[in-house]
Amino acid sequence: MPLTLSDFDYTLPAELIAQSPLSERSASRLLVVTPGEHGTPVMADAVFADLPDLVRPGDLFVFNDTRVIHARIHGVKDSGGQVEVLIERAIGPHEALAQVRASKSPRTGSRLHLADAFEVEVLGRVGEFFHLRFPDGEDLLTLLERHGKLPLPPYIQRAAGEADESRYQTVYAREPGSVAAPTAGLHFDEALLARLTAAGAKSAWLTLHVGAGTFQPVRVDDLGEHRMHRERYVIPQETVDAIAATRAAGGRVIAVGTTSMRALEAAAQEGPLEAGSGETEIFILPGFRFQVVDALVTNFHLPKSTLMMLVSAFAGMDSIRRAYAHAVEARYRFFSYGDAMFITRRNEAENDDLNDAI
């Protein structure tokens, strides 16, 4: 029977949605999920600081080094109506695609006056996004850094504060361009990274800029009709070489976050993994055959979201249902500032039984 949206639903008490980070990054809880006999997962409750105990010498962690930009900016239309602009992604030094919230959508050719500082021109629509041209002179990211605000996710019911400027970034964030943090990485601090190295693990890096589309709900029940948003990624040659060396030595490739997984698996769909840049709209559902990633560090995801579908493909639908039910019962904290999971991929042979479901 084809998969439908309701297959990835679960009940989450609102009070389990984390509204703020813990005082220490690695103090969050960690639910360890490994394949068991007959598809039943083996689960263990831990804390994130225990992660080095799960590492084998020669394992490779792949991190997403994207940096969240000040992508939210307020202003007014020519008519005087209030607008909120949320950048989806830059498409040049002075142009971007963006969500624009207003009582009435701005017309092509109109101008938005933002932050009492500058104007942007509405060039048109690209799907659900508006194509905006920013003024010449300073580049887009510089303007946003000065006049915009950090965009916390919609389920965090407060405005971004000073503490979020550091805590909603990973400690290794380098490449500006995301409008949402790769949240699995928020649990790592410098001390934990050093302990992973001491345990024999290696690290590699890629960049995937997370777009605002990551929070867009799936609006169709027939998942075959859903179209993913596009996200840009860069995979360096050093990372490809590190993955090849890890494979040759019998180590595991551990993706830190679904963003790292999406970049790696997208780049390996047409053949062997190669270095380079590109855009992906890969939609990972149960039945997907993973080519690169053996284990995944990830936060808990929204019901009926494409990321719930991704982790269900990776661990198995029943395993994820059981794990999420356990996390709710055990009062784990959910979503961006919440707790995490360490998931080991199930056997590919088990995926073959699901290929007719998509």
Write the SSE topology.
Layout: E1 29-34, E2 42-47, E3 60-64, E4 66-68, E5 72-77, E6 82-90, E7 95-102, E8 111-114, E9 118-126, E10 129-133, H1 140-147, H2 164-167, E11 175-178, H3 190-198, E12 202-208, E13 231-235, H4 237-249, E14 253-256, H5 258-267, E15 276-280, E16 295-299, H6 306-315, H7 317-329, E17 340-344, H8 348-352
Parallel strand pairs: 1-17, 3-12, 3-14, 4-11, 14-16
Antiparallel strand pairs: 1-2, 5-6, 5-8, 6-7, 7-10, 8-9, 9-10, 12-13, 13-15, 16-17
Helix pairs in contact: 6-7
Give the termini separation. Answer: 9 Å
CATH homologous group name of the largest domain: QueA-like
Shape: globular
What class would the helix/strand composition place it in?
alpha/beta
Strand order of the largest sheet: 2-1-17-16-14-3-12-13-15
Main sheet attributes: strand count, strand direction, barrel closure: 9 strands, mixed
Gyration radius, rounded: 21 Å
- Average residue pLDDT: 93
Question: Total helix count?
Answer: 8
Query: Which bin fits the share of residues in helices?
Result: 10-25%
Q: What are the low-pLDDT stretches, counting only 5+ consecutive residues below 50?
A: 349-358
Strand content: 25-35%
Q: What letter string, H or E per element, gives the SSE order?
A: EEEEEEEEEEHHEHEEHEHEEHHEH
**Which CATH architecture of the largest domain would you pick?**
3-Layer(aba) Sandwich
State the total count of DSSP E strands: 17
CATH level 1 class label of the largest domain:
Alpha Beta
